[in-house]
Amino acid sequence: MIVVVKLGTSVLTAGAQHLDRAHMVELVRQCALLQKAGHKLIVVTSGAVAAGRELLGFPDLPADLPHKQMLAAIGQGQLVHLWQHLFGLYGLNVGQMLLTRADLEDRERFLNARDTLGTLLSHGVIPLINENDAVATNEIKVGDNDNLSARVAILAKAELLMLLTDQPGLFTADPRANPDAELIQEVKTIDATLHRLAGGSVSGLGTGGMATKLQAADVARRAGITVVIASGQGPDVIRRLVQGERVGTRFSAIDDPLENRKQWILAGPPPVGQLQLDAGAVNALLSKGASLLPKGVKAVSGQFERGDAVKLLGPDGNTLAVGLCRYSAAEMAAILGIHSDAIAMALGYDRGPVVIHRDDLVLLD
């Protein structure tokens, strides 16, 4: 089994300002046991900024991007060196991979990253993955290691993604404010109600929160990957989750996982525009497996170019799908609602009769 273990900053620091090395040793021990039992593990590790801050003696710095990137640049080497040392105690090697959104959006770079992961795993090396915070700007960041771990799980064709955090899982209410909140043990459908239950990060140490974990779980389960949100402080939590014990909140994998290209669409470029569809187009997409034609598009918003990902909205404004659009936003504005055979007359050329081909479309319902 290929398992992705995402370790948040709050897990690695136990809520303090410095890395909790004693607990990191315990996490490594669990990973080593599974690795030696024949499983293949990938570790998505936060903590570079915390490591950098610790190395500098916890200075009082502005909370702006350049200073965060400075701390990440200082701390990333320290973090990897520490992981190398700890895994080395168990005779295991690690290999670092730093990723940005650009590595996942570009199809060739996506495939190259997948090949690198596969090669590391085939040689018994545990990949250590983090976002390249030292150089990533908001425009090229995945944004948090929860969503990065979901995309890594897709890259590696993993079967299980563990999102280990400082909370036991997802609750029916915020357990910090409501003593009657109950742990949700299993989730089969992620809907608007569930999203409202998810809150933000409160530790001040990381960039994620329960909301980003829910986003990550939704992405991964659509690719056929089981996801569990659980406490990284729980006893033997990594081994227990691999063995299928009921720990934390488990998100069932969708039975019919997306084929490879659609996994890349879902894991790669974030939507940069929206197309609102009429009822006929929605029916054709959902019931007939059709491609999207310009006649079914009522409105366009956002600035996007040919090949960019866009959201498809129904008449009620709900998001139905994500797809790669064959026409730019400006071109779409000129061909809204027309028949496909009139595209050339409207534009002076055409890029084919469909706006989004079925093979470039991922339904979200």
Automatic annotation (TrEMBL):
<feature type="domain" description="PUA">
    <location>
        <begin position="273"/>
        <end position="356"/>
    </location>
</feature>
<feature type="binding site">
    <location>
        <position position="145"/>
    </location>
    <ligand>
        <name>substrate</name>
    </ligand>
</feature>
<dbReference type="InterPro" id="IPR001057">
    <property type="entry name" value="Glu/AcGlu_kinase"/>
</dbReference>
<dbReference type="GO" id="GO:0055129">
    <property type="term" value="P:L-proline biosynthetic process"/>
</dbReference>
<feature type="binding site">
    <location>
        <begin position="207"/>
        <end position="213"/>
    </location>
    <ligand>
        <name>ATP</name>
    </ligand>
</feature>
<dbReference type="InterPro" id="IPR036393">
    <property type="entry name" value="AceGlu_kinase-like_sf"/>
</dbReference>
<dbReference type="Pfam" id="PF00696">
    <property type="entry name" value="AA_kinase"/>
</dbReference>
<dbReference type="InterPro" id="IPR001048">
    <property type="entry name" value="Asp/Glu/Uridylate_kinase"/>
</dbReference>
<keyword id="KW-0547">Nucleotide-binding</keyword>
<dbReference type="Pfam" id="PF01472">
    <property type="entry name" value="PUA"/>
</dbReference>
<feature type="binding site">
    <location>
        <position position="46"/>
    </location>
    <ligand>
        <name>substrate</name>
    </ligand>
</feature>
<dbReference type="GO" id="GO:0003723">
    <property type="term" value="F:RNA binding"/>
</dbReference>
<dbReference type="GO" id="GO:0005524">
    <property type="term" value="F:ATP binding"/>
</dbReference>
<comment type="pathway">
    <text>Amino-acid biosynthesis; L-proline biosynthesis; L-glutamate 5-semialdehyde from L-glutamate: step 1/2.</text>
</comment>
<dbReference type="InterPro" id="IPR036974">
    <property type="entry name" value="PUA_sf"/>
</dbReference>
<dbReference type="InterPro" id="IPR011529">
    <property type="entry name" value="Glu_5kinase"/>
</dbReference>
<comment type="similarity">
    <text>Belongs to the glutamate 5-kinase family.</text>
</comment>
<dbReference type="InterPro" id="IPR015947">
    <property type="entry name" value="PUA-like_sf"/>
</dbReference>
<dbReference type="InterPro" id="IPR019797">
    <property type="entry name" value="Glutamate_5-kinase_CS"/>
</dbReference>
<dbReference type="GO" id="GO:0004349">
    <property type="term" value="F:glutamate 5-kinase activity"/>
</dbReference>
<feature type="binding site">
    <location>
        <begin position="165"/>
        <end position="166"/>
    </location>
    <ligand>
        <name>ATP</name>
    </ligand>
</feature>
<feature type="binding site">
    <location>
        <position position="133"/>
    </location>
    <ligand>
        <name>substrate</name>
    </ligand>
</feature>
<dbReference type="InterPro" id="IPR041739">
    <property type="entry name" value="G5K_ProB"/>
</dbReference>
<keyword id="KW-0418">Kinase</keyword>
<protein>
    <recommendedName>
        <fullName>Glutamate 5-kinase</fullName>
        <ecNumber>2.7.2.11</ecNumber>
    </recommendedName>
</protein>
<keyword id="KW-0963">Cytoplasm</keyword>
<dbReference type="GO" id="GO:0005829">
    <property type="term" value="C:cytosol"/>
</dbReference>
<keyword id="KW-0641">Proline biosynthesis</keyword>
<comment type="function">
    <text>Catalyzes the transfer of a phosphate group to glutamate to form L-glutamate 5-phosphate.</text>
</comment>
<keyword id="KW-0028">Amino-acid biosynthesis</keyword>
<dbReference type="InterPro" id="IPR005715">
    <property type="entry name" value="Glu_5kinase/COase_Synthase"/>
</dbReference>
<dbReference type="InterPro" id="IPR002478">
    <property type="entry name" value="PUA"/>
</dbReference>
<keyword id="KW-0808">Transferase</keyword>
<feature type="binding site">
    <location>
        <position position="6"/>
    </location>
    <ligand>
        <name>ATP</name>
    </ligand>
</feature>
<keyword id="KW-0067">ATP-binding</keyword>
